[in-house]
Amino acid sequence: MRRLQQLGGTTRAANGDEVDALPRSTVSTILRGDKLPRSEFVSAFVTACLVYGGQPPEKVAEATERWLAHWRALYATGATEGAEGRPARDAPLAEEPKRWSVPRHLPLGAPFLAGRAAELDVAEQLFRRQSGGGVFLVTGSVGVGKSAFAVRWAHSLIDDFPDGQLYVDLRGPHGPLDSQQALGVLLGSLGVHEDDCPKDPWRRVERYRSLIAGRRMLVVLDNACDAEQVRPLLATGEHCRTVVTSRNRMSGLVAREAAQRLVLEVLSSEAACAVLSAVIDEAHLVEARAELEELAELCGYLPLVLRLAAVKFTDRPGQGFKSFVRSMRDGGQLLSLALDGDTGSSIQDELEFSYRRLGLDAKRFFRKIGLVDETGFTLEAGAALAGIPLAEADRLTAQLESEHLVAEVGGRRFTMPRVLQAFARAMERNAGEARTLMLA
């Protein structure tokens, strides 16, 4: 037993202390009991026994995974997982076995999703063509409606995933979640108490994957920053699917995990006007079609900006719709769009989140190209504005493209929506004021 204890190595207790993975008292209790041991114990015990028996590493790994598969099958049937060190005979005789509670964690779907019927059809076709486990990436610029689209799509797939749907907002209430924090949320959704979450990062990944293996589950990872954040969270079961939303194109996820990428473009003018008309009473839009189309254009045909603008007008309709549209021609008014008391409903905050993720060179380049007019810029013009070599302008433009802060419109010409341009100009003014203060 002492040798097995040595071969079992160490693990982290709930309080963070490093302890033996196979304490002799625990081994004795579990082997005499009738409760299902924890998966960490199974892994450590089987590994120690096989290593003690002189098995090669590949055989050890294969056999350990086989025993863990048996453990997962028992856990899925509702077998009670006992606390290590607690004799089974001490458990109440009337204790009910743990039941699998199907998680249904998708947020409320948007009741109105204008102009996305074609994209939903494409997403459905991608899903039906995908065999085995699959990853789907919904990407696009800030405010283009990625989350609303993904949630609406996920709700349409509920019947395909009877074992549950998991959802995590990777932005988090206090900043982006790292992979380990997100895994804690997912494990909690699967019924694992916070104190029972493995402390070791890889064991946490293994626990997550073990619990969903063999089940038909959908995992939605919303507002992801990059592929590194997402990879440990991907559902790897054969009958599971993962939907990821991100402003980043995540080319690495497409290349390495064969993710199916769906890019959401800005709405058409007609769809954008429909978004505005769904919020603003038609009485205010009489003989104001031109102003309605102008407001849609000022908002960059972005659903988030459109809804914020529409709600802002309905909060104070006495000013008149035409007067309101004239005020929105000021870029500062566009950037001020927000809902009082509703965090996460500010276009300024959304843009700042993307801006903070850029490197110093990319930030400076973004500010400079915001000075061009609405027709956009060429790489040569961008290089001249920023005072950098053409190759550097090409590299930085590619970075901004990856984050959907600029878009190519043909002929190696690039542009950005009006609201992003207003933001870039505001950042350039702030940077100029900071330089002035430093020189004063």
Automatic annotation (TrEMBL):
Residues 122-279 form the NB-ARC domain. Signal peptide: none annotated. GO terms for molecular function: ADP binding. Transmembrane segments: none annotated. InterPro entries: NB-ARC, P-loop_NTPase. SUPFAM superfamilies: P-loop containing nucleoside triphosphate hydrolases. This is NB-ARC domain-containing protein.
